[in-house]
Amino acid sequence: MKIADIKPWIVGVPSRDPLRPRRELVFVQVDTSDGITGWGEVTTYPGPIANRAVCAVFRQMKEILAGDDASRIEATWHKVFRAFTYMGSMGMTTAVASGIDIALWDIRGKEMKLPIYKLLGGAVRDNIPLYTHPPRSTSVQESAKLAKETVDIGYKAIKTDPFWEEKAVTQTTYLSGQISPEGEQKGVDIIATIREAVGPKVEIMIDAHAHYNVPTGVRLATRLAPYNITWFEEPVPPESYHALKQVRQQVPVRICVGERLHTRFEFVPIFENQLADYIMPDVTWTGGITELKKIANLAEAYYVPITPHDASGPINIMAGAHAMMTVPNFYRLESARLFVEAYSNLLVTPLDIRDGTLHMSDRPGLGIEFNMDYLKNNAAPGWGG
Q1: pLDDT (0 to 100) of residue 90
Q2: pLDDT tens digits for 369-384?
Q3: 347: number of CA atoms within 13 Å, CB side?
Q4: Per-residue pLDDT for 339 more than 80?
Q5: What is the DSSP annotation of 131-175?
Q6: What is the pTM of this model?
Q7: Beta strands 333-335 and 278-279: pairing type?
Q8: How many whole angstroms separate alpha carbon 144 and alpha carbon 195?
Q9: Could you give the 3-state DSSP secondary structure of residue 4?
Q10: Fold (topology level) of 118-358
Q11: Where are the domains of the chain?
């Protein structure tokens, strides 16, 4: 069975997130000579420019992959990865490798009539525990109310950025790495109020979105420590392991990093220098299912839990879930609650999420089927496959 065609999609989906009432998701469709189609995803941040750039590269990938054996997933990963060798191994390179890798695993599962996790060694658990994000609010009391509502529908772990109002939600506003005293105090008040509302047993993760310099990251993590946070995520930008080490040595909370790290090679210094308690690679950015599994195996050797990042579309969550079904050192999988609700527009059968847990099926490949009418009707002009 040969790779016959590669088609990128940019599809708009609504959400109830006031900051992102409509999001663009990037999918890649890989067709084979035997008529089997696989799907991958590579949604990027902050969005429009990066999404179109990666889709343009997908169109070019047909020239080097058409005619290749679709079952040679490892060989294809290296062919794609090394095609960009002089551009470097992060960002665009691993995004493209991720999308195609996930699609090839989807194809392989459909060909074998098995879910991907059964091709990766089989399940070590029955389902996938999740953590999710409560809806955002600029009000301290409303933030606590929304967190409590999220817990009440069954989630036992939530994540939030209490400083988002001042710092936005992605690392596109970094300049000095500082925050105002007013913004800092409001963020601390939000977490104090959320903890009181949800009680002592619910896990609270803090996403710092890599916004801070070393002293600011240290101060914020230390101030949030009394509220029993599970981790303080990405305290500093990912470019400096030294900055991360400085924070790590000074804070009384656990550290989680990894959504902006690409391939196992960038995780080696994290493990060797004991820079994190948890890692959170994103299956659509770090190199796909093939690479996520390798990173998880590497983390297992250091007894570090893996808790994949997922704040995009349904393929993102399902690709990560299939890999984590087979991983002993898995902790929780991220899910963006407001986006998960929008997935039902895209899918023939909605994801089976109950009581904060993703229940996996035995359907082949990724186990999902797109509503093609929705994709076609909501595709960005020029990017409809």
Answers
A1: 85
A2: 999 999 999 999 999 9
A3: 19
A4: no
A5: EE-PPP-SSHHHHHHHHHHHHHTT-SEEEE-TTHHHH-SSTTS-S
A6: 0.96
A7: unpaired
A8: 8
A9: strand
A10: TIM Barrel (3.20.20)
A11: 3-113+371-384, 118-358
Token pair, residue 316, equals 């993102």
Strands (E), 208-330: 231-233, 255-257, 278-279
| DSSP state, residue 40 | E
- Measured distance CA(383)–CA(381) in Å, rounded: 6
Peptide bond preceding 314 in cis form (omega within 30 of 0)? no
pLDDT of residue 5: 98
Least confident segment among 10-19, 210-219, 260-269: 10-19
Planar angle of CA 28, 31, 35, nearest 5 degrees: 145
Measured in residues, the chain has a length of 385
Confidence of residue 169 (pLDDT cuts 50, 70, 90): low
The confidence band for 22, taking pLDDT boundaries of 50, 70 and 90, is: confident
Q: Domain 3-113+371-384, CATH 2.30.40.10 — does that match?
A: no
DSSP letter (8 states) at residue 230 = S
Q: Which amino acid is at 295?
A: I
- Which structure tokens are listed for 110? 């459909």
- Percent of the chain residues past pLDDT 90, beyond the cut: 85
Q: Contacts by 373-381 with C-beta closer than 8 Å and gap 24+?
A: 374/11, 374/345, 374/346, 375/9, 375/11, 375/27, 375/346, 378/11, 378/12, 378/13, 378/345, 379/9, 379/10, 379/11, 379/12, 380/10, 380/11, 380/12, 380/24
Confidence of residue 167 (pLDDT cuts 50, 70, 90): confident
Read off the pLDDT of each residue in 257-280 and give the average, rounded to a whole number. 97
Q: At what angle do helices 92-112 and 73-83 cross, to 10 degrees?
A: 160
Q: What is the identity of the amino acid at 11?
A: V
Mean pLDDT, residues 91-119: 97
Closest CA to 370 of 79, 73, 28: 28
Strands of 277-377, DSSP E: 278-279, 333-335, 353-354, 357-358
The tokens describing 349, both together, are 């059968």
